[in-house]
């Protein structure tokens, strides 16, 4: 009995002596695991950060490119509309025939074609969707359509004066016919001057709208002289 008790005491003492080693080993295992896992975690975080930054840059670049493409798309359409508008204005120059030409023949060109050319310019402006920023400005809108109205009125006036000039068998005296010719000359000269100023102003507005220049001196159209 005593021998058995002695054996149990020896066994217990041996287990107690081994216990610190077991605890020490148990504590050592987590420390090794953390040391092994920490670099992996850090590397993963860095990789995720790099991927996130790359995705963000790609998205930002995509949005910037889309914005540039949209801006260029608008600019291309504005350029096309300005081209059509200036082409319509150039047709009025063809009608006015500013090169050397007999007065009566030039007046006939104005009578026959100026009203139509002014109408076509008005129709072209109505389809300018991308130039609304230009036409929505009251001053520019008024200046543009005022010239079209004056061109139309000049066509009517010249047509009436030519009607008087054609009345060779009427009671008009030679002096009255000379005054009629003079009025036709005045009308023709006035609308030509108005057109030159209008065309210069329109080209200036196109240049500003398309960003080729920041600003230019304002162009003032010459005043209209009422027909007598």
Name the descriptors.
228 residues, mainly alpha, disordered N terminus, single chain, 0% strand, 5 helices
Please give the structural blueprint.
Elements: H1 2-96, H2 103-126, H3 132-135, H4 138-165, H5 174-209
The low-confidence runs, each spanning 5 or more residues with pLDDT under 50, are 2-6, 8-13, 15-29
Q: From the alpha carbons, calculate the radius of gyration and give it in angstroms.
A: 45 Å
Helix content: over 70%
Distance between the termini: 151 Å
Note the total helix count: 5
Instruction: Please summarize the sheet with the most strands.
Output: none
Q: What is the N-to-C succession of helices and strands?
A: HHHHH
Shape descriptor reads rod-shaped
Structural class: mainly alpha
User: Average pLDDT across residues?
Assistant: 78
User: Percent of residues in beta strands?
Assistant: under 5%
Number of strands: 0
Question: Can I get a quick summary?
Answer:
This protein is mainly α and 228 residues long.
How would you explain this protein's 3D organization?
With 228 residues, the chain is mainly alpha-helical. The protein has a domain at 74-209. The protein has helices at residues 2-96, 103-126, 132-135, 138-165, 174-209. The longest helix is centred in the N-terminal third of the chain and has 95 residues, at 2-96. The relative contact order is 0.08.
């Amino acid at each position: 009995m005593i021998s058995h008790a002695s054996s149990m005491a020896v066994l217990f003492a041996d287990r107690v002596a081994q216990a610190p080693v077991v605890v020490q080993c148990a504590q050592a295992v987590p420390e090794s695991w953390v040391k092994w896992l920490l670099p992996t975690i850090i590397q993963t975080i860095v990789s995720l950060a790099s991927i996130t930054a790359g995705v963000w840059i790609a998205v930002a670049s995509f949005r910037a490119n889309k914005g540039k493409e949209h801006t260029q798309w608008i600019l291309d359409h504005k350029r096309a509309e300005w081209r059509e508008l200036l082409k319509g204005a150039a047709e009025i120059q063809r009608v006015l025939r500013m090169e050397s030409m007999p007065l009566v023949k030039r007046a006939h060109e104005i009578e026959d074609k100026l009203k139509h050319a002014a109408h076509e310019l008005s129709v072209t402006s109505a389809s300018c969707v991308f130039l609304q920023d230009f036409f929505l400005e009251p001053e520019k809108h008024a200046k543009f359509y005022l010239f079209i109205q004056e061109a139309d009125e000049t066509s009517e006036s010249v047509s009436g004066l030519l009607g008087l000039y054609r009345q060779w068998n009427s009671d008009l005296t030679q002096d009255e016919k000379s005054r009629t010719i003079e009025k036709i000359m005045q009308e023709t000269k006035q609308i030509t001057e108005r057109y030159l100023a209008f065309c210069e102003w329109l080209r200036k507005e196109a240049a500003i709208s398309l960003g080729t220049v920041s600003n230019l001196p304002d162009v003032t159209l010459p005043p209209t002289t009422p027909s007598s």
